[in-house]
Specification:
single chain, about 240 residues, alpha/beta, nine-stranded mixed β-sheet, three-stranded mixed β-sheet, 6 helices
Length: about 240
């Protein structure tokens, strides 16, 4: 019986010690101040749209920059809400580290196209097809101009932007998309002096596959500046218009 009582007392003491130790290590002194921030971009590729300097400026402008403040006074939810209002941030997660810093995990919004329409709209489409404000930031993506309303941009141009971004050859080749009053698509390539005419939106994979074959088998042989216009509007044919001499 004495042995059992001794074992029980030992277990109780060990449990009390563990509880005290965990409480002591996890507790923050009321006057402990924040030592800074740790910013991590969680996307597989850091496109550089959001920087440490920019995050600091956002928080300082919002008067909630945490460095030097007491940890007990820092509202991480408030930090998250402010950062998530930035046009290039999809989501922000903030938490206090054991080293007395604020860790900030950023998930970026990645633009696939910039729209500069004839109605003076100026914005980006992100990789989810959502509207992003231009915010004075220049990003190297294809530019869409012409007769574009926001519905057309999100339903018809967004799939084209995603396609171009997914294909390294065409992403580097196409620099501008122009939408005509009939809502047909003209493309301006970086190489060659011709205009590519796609016609109505859609069937991008087939049209660009056919065009790439034509590029490789014909333009490499006859020259890149021979034609003024190359149409891939119709299935199984490519119509070329020669330049006037």
């Amino acid at each position: 019986m004495i042995k059992r009582i001794f074992i029980l007392c030992t277990l109780l003491l060990a449990t009390a010690y563990l509880i005290l130790a965990v409480t002591t290590f996890n507790s923050k002194p009321a006057d402990q101040v924040c030592k800074g921030m740790e910013l991590t971009v969680k996307d597989s590729i850091d496109y550089g749209f959001v920087t440490d300097k920019e995050v600091k400026e956002i928080l300082k402008k919002g008067k909630i920059y945490p460095e030097g403040k007491q940890l007990s006074s820092i509202n991480v939810r408030q930090l998250e809400e402010l950062l998530s209002s930035h046009p290039f941030i999809e989501n922000a997660e903030c938490y206090l580290t054991s080293g007395g810093k604020v860790a900030i995990d950023i998930y970026q919004r990645v633009p696939v196209m910039r729209v500069m329409s004839s109605n003076r709209d100026n914005y980006y489409l992100d990789n989810a097809g959502k509207i992003m404000t231009a915010a004075g930031k220049s990003v190297h993506v294809v530019v869409a101009t012409g007769f574009i309303d926001r519905k057309f941009a999100q339903t018809e141009l967004y799939p084209l932007g995603k396609f171009l971004q997914s294909d390294k050859f065409w992403e580097s080749q196409i620099e501008q998309i122009n939408v005509t009053p009939k809502q047909e698509l003209e493309l301006v390539p970086r190489v060659g002096e011709h205009i590519l005419f796609l016609g109505k939106p859609g069937n991008y994979k087939e049209k660009f596959s056919k065009l790439r074959t034509f590029y490789q088998s014909a333009l490499n042989r006859v020259g890149w500046n021979k034609y003024e216009r190359i149409s891939i509007e119709f299935n199984n044919q490519i119509i070329c218009t020669k330049k006037e001499k």
